[in-house]
């Protein structure tokens, strides 16, 4: 450091301000400037004469001080302290459990270290080294040893020196003798065995412990999104179960019951779990087998309909049959409103003499070879109805007068409700059942009509079927002599009924005598209207889906008649040359309807195209002797199902001509909705009404 | 109560057996194999070697297909899988614990 230090305090006052000395505190910051100042100062001091010319260069970052500050005196002390030594070393004291500053800091500054390798000759290590080196070196360094020996006793004295010399000579001799011995001892290179190899080496023995290795298993898994989702679901379910357990009071009996159930389930888990997949597979296989039918059902449209102006055809699709139902005839058909491919078939017998068992069978279009649900019954079924909103509730009417309600969700084959003799069952076959809207207590209820002349309403109240007589069909005027002279009205036999689509309380009942009565649920003894419809029993009466005034009826007297309920005479009459089993309006058009006859034909009419004739008359069964008993239109697809008296159900597809919608006028959008249909029908009716009005 | 449940399960078993018989009797069906979740066939109408081969290969395919469907939307699941080839068609319907394989030649 070029800074000039003197022992003791230094005071220096020098004139010019550039030679001021600054406090040690500012030393580090201003060291550069100070150095320069000092240098300048010393140089100035030394060579004043020739340095005067030199101008002073002020560094840019020089601190500007006032005159007073410049003249300030600073004392500087020279100490023996190590300037690099830390001044505040702190050590953790365990005794006091805190950091304590060390009182004295080592001020030693080591500038240079060099490890030496000199040994004192009397030290242990030196002696050892000498001993090692002694034997081989004595031979070469005898002279040096001898030379050494006189040297060592140099301090001892001359007397000792002689003895020592002798000793040294002796030593020399001994060394020589040793060397000589060594010469004798040259080893035999042919018959030499090292000592080490002669010893017996014990066999090495492992002394380690060997434990059983810990059981290992390989584990691998993938972390997919769905695996994570599954785990989360499981956790959620467990949480919910825990919540339920916390809420519910545990009952011991229930637990026992549950345990038993668990046991049973585990025993039979192998094959029953395959049930669902087996069903899917069966449908897939069927789809393959009947592939062409499935394709036709979906896509086939008869192109030749364009050339046939006023005619259409029915394309046969699947045929549904069940082995055990072969002797029975189809007595009822009903499509399911929610599941559009599911329909119910009621099997029984119309023959009075051949009464026996019956069956309730459900088919799906997806599997035509085997029914989805089978319910055998003791008595023949005559009618059935599926609830519009609850697709699992089915009401059935039997030949023996009972009515029953089946729940498809239940595992059992028994109905959930059945009417008995005590609970007001009919005394004659039940010809029609129909579900109604839930009553005010939100109980389901349905109506039934029977040959015993009663129209009965059944309500499902908890576990019972409660009946209410709505109306008793009495033959107008006809009175019979009862016991004790009481005049009893003879009951007419109801054979069919239908409820109005919009007007809730209005319904029609067809009787065996051929009359149709218009009734109201409110009036139990009187009819609103009576139509003399047919000469024989009215087999079916149906309101039009669109037009609120129109209904159709068919009978075994070979006729189908269309009525306006405000007019007592039929609007249209069609003679079909054979007893008509059933008639149905189409759900897509107000002017299209179809009828089936006992000669195996399906007659389809479209009044907007042809008012007098059927646009399609087609036999649909192979054998001519088979009578067709029922027909139903599918609510969505353009197919109809037809049941016959041999237990078969045939499905047929309607060709485009049979499904005609009104033509759109050029430039206008195709009008949609039931209004169009109503208007269509109204137009037809108005043509008929006016001449009638004029006649009347 | 427990007796009734057992009866129902027995009836179900018969129903399933019936269904399988019907499937086997359909036109063109060559064989049915029921495989459990680990890929081991538990019931089959084919010979042993074919069964084992089908079970092993199809098990992997079904796992992959199912994984694909569920990866896209975990709430979705595979309903069935059809593999149509020149000679026949393999139909697979998977379930949680089992899957059913049916080999059919529809043009027979």
From TrEMBL, chain A:
Residues 39-49 have a biased composition (Acidic residues). GO terms for cellular component: microtubule; outer dynein arm. WD repeats lie at residues 531-564. Residues 22-31 have a biased composition (Low complexity). Gene3D superfamilies: YVTN repeat-like/Quinoprotein amine dehydrogenase. One of its GO terms (molecular function) is dynein heavy chain binding. Residues 135-151, 168-185 have a biased composition (Basic and acidic residues). PROSITE patterns: WD_REPEATS_2 (PS50082), WD_REPEATS_REGION (PS50294). The keyword Repeat applies. Consists of at least two heavy chains and a number of intermediate and light chains. Interacts with BICD2. Interacts with CFAP45 and CFAP52. Interacts with CFAP53. Part of the dynein complex of respiratory cilia. Belongs to the dynein intermediate chain family. This is Dynein axonemal intermediate chain 1. It comes from Oncorhynchus tshawytscha (Chinook salmon).
TrEMBL record, chain B:
InterPro entries: DYNLRB1/2 (IPR016561), Roadblock/LAMTOR2_dom (IPR004942). Pfam families: Robl_LC7. Residues 16-104 form the Roadblock/LAMTOR2 domain. Keywords: Cytoplasm, Cytoskeleton, Dynein, Microtubule, Motor protein, Transport. GO terms for biological process: microtubule-based movement. Gene3D superfamilies: Dynein light chain 2a, cytoplasmic (3.30.450.30). It is found in: Cytoplasm, Cytoskeleton. Its main location: cytoplasm. SUPFAM superfamilies: Roadblock/LC7 domain. GO terms for cellular component: cytoplasm; cytoplasmic dynein complex; microtubule. One of its GO terms (molecular function) is dynein intermediate chain binding. Belongs to the GAMAD family. Acts as one of several non-catalytic accessory components of the cytoplasmic dynein 1 complex that are thought to be involved in linking dynein to cargos and to adapter proteins that regulate dynein function. Cytoplasmic dynein 1 acts as a motor for the intracellular retrograde motility of vesicles and organelles along microtubules. This is Dynein light chain roadblock.
């Amino acid at each position: 450091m070029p800074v000039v230090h003197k022992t003791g305090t230094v005071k220096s006052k020098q004139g010019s301000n550039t030679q001021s000395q600054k406090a040690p505190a500012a030393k580090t910051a201003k060291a550069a400037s100070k150095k320069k100042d000092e240098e300048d100062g010393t140089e100035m001091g030394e060579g004043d004469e020739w340095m005067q010319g030199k101008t002073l260069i002020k560094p840019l970052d020089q601190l500007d001080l006032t005159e007073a500050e410049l003249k300030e005196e600073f004392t500087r002390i020279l100490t023996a302290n190590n300037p690099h030594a830390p001044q505040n070393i702190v050590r953790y004291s365990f005794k006091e459990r805190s950091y304590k500053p060390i009182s004295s800091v080592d001020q030693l500054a080591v500038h240079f270290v060099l490890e030496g390798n000199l040994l004192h000759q009397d030290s242990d290590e030196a002696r050892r080294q000498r001993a090692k080196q002694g034997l081989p070196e004595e031979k070469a360094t005898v002279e040096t040893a001898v030379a050494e020996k006189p040297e060592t006793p140099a301090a001892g004295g001359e007397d000792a020196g002689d003895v020592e010399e002798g000793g040294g000579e002796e030593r020399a001799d001994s060394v020589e003798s040793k060397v000589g011995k060594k010469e004798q001892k040259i080893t035999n290179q042919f018959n030499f065995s090292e000592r080490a190899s002669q010893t017996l080496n014990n066999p090495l023995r492992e002394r380690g412990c060997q434990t059983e290795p810990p059981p290992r298993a390989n584990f691998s898994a993938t972390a997919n999104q769905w695996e994570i989702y599954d785990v989360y679901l499981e956790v959620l379910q467990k949480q919910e179960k825990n919540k339920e357990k916390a809420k519910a009071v545990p009952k011991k009996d229930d637990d026992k019951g549950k345990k038993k159930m668990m046991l049973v389930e585990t025993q039979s888990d192998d094959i029953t779990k395959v049930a669902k997949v087996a069903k899917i597979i069966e449908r897939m296989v069927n789809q393959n087998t009947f592939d062409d039918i499935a394709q036709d059902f979906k896509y086939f449209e008869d192109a030749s309909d364009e050339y046939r102006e006023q005619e259409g055809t029915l394309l046969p699709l699947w045929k549904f049959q069940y082995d055990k139902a072969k002797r029975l005839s189809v007595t009822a058909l009903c499509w399911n409103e929610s599941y559009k491919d599911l329909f119910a078939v009621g099997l029984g017998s119309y023959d009075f003499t051949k009464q026996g068992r019956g069956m309730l069978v459900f088919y799906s279009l997806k599997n035509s070879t085997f029914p989805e649900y089978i319910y055998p019954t003791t008595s023949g079924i005559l009618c059935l109805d599926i609830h519009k909103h609850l697709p699992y509730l089915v009401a059935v009417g039997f030949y023996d007068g009972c009515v029953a309600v089946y729940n498809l969700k239940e595992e059992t084959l028994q109905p959930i409700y059945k009417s008995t003799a005590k609970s007001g069952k009919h005394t004659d076959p039940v010809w029609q059942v129909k579900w109604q809207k839930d009553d005010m207590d939100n109980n389901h209820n349905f109506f039934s009509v029977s040959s015993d002349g009663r129209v009965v309403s059944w309500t499902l109240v908890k576990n019972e079927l409660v009946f209410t007589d709505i109306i008793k069909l009495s033959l107008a005027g006809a009175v019979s002599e009862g016991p004790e002279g009481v005049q009893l009205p003879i009951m007419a036999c109801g054979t069919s009924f239908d409820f109005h689509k919009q007007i809730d309380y209005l319904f029609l009942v067809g009787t065996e005598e051929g009359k149709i009565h218009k009734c109201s649920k409110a009036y139990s003894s009187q009819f609103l209207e009576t139509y003399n419809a047919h000469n024989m029993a009215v087999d079916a009466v149906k309101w039009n889906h669109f037009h609120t005034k129109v209904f159709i009826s068919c009978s075994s007297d070979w006729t189908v008649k269309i009525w306006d309920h405000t007019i007592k005479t039929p609007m249209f009459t069609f003679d079909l040359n054979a007893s008509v089993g059933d008639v149905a309006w189409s759900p897509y058009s107000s002017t299209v309807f179809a009828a089936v006859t006992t000669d195996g034909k399906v007659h389809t009419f479209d009044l907007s195209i042809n008012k007098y004739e059927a646009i399609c008359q087609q036999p649909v069964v192979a054998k001519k002797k088979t009578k067709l008993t029922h027909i139903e239109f599918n609510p969505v697809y353009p197919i109809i199902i037809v049941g016959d008296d041999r237990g078969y159900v045939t499905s047929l597809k309607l060709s485009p001509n049979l499904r005609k919608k009104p033509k759109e006028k050029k430039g206008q959008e195709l009008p949609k909705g039931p209004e169009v249909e109503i208007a269509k029908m109204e137009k037809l009716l108005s043509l008929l009404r006016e001449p009638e009005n004029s006649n009347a | 109560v427990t007796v009734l449940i057992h009866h129902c399960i027995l009836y179900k078993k018969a129903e399933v057996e019936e269904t399988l018989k019907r499937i086997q009797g359909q036109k063109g069906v060559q064989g049915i194999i029921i495989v459990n979740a680990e890929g081991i066939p538990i019931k089959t109408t084919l010979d042993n070697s074919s069964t084992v081969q089908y079970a092993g290969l199809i098990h992997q395919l079904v796992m992959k297909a199912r994984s694909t469907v569920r990866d896209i939307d975990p709430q979705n699941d595979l309903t069935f899988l059809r593999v149509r080839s020149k000679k026949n068609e393999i139909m697979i319907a998977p379930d949680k614990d089992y899957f059913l394989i049916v080999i059919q030649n529809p043009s027979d």
